[in-house]
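pasting for the record
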Amino acid sequence: MPVSRVVPADLPELTELFAGYLSFYQVPRPVAEIEAFLAARLAGNDSVLLLARDGTGTALGFVQLYPFFASLQLKPAFLLSDLYVSPAARRQGLAEALMNAARAHAEANGACGLQLETAKDNFAGQALYEKLGYVRDEVFYTYWLGLNDPA
């Protein structure tokens, strides 16, 4: 299944997939809000979005990467923020293909690593990440401070 970088023409299909992603995490949003968020990511070039399609060209999944700097390594890195495969396309290797494309992008751009978070009960995701060489952090805790969140 081919994976390519998202271009503005992909926005309608990406928006539909992203809506499914938000619903999966039980935080649905209006389609117009999702589309505006994604359009801003593309226009600002502040994230890398990769889209996977089947042989007929139907978009089935995506991954979103945000660049950052790994201060302890003094090098650039990427946060693998979002990974989603439509339910009908799961268990076909699509998530692995997206993860491998994310890795290839990071390597091609001189990153020292990829960081991700996942839900504690996402056992399928954890198995995939560990299969691909990701190591669970046992040293650091993740914290979040919500600021002015109207939701």
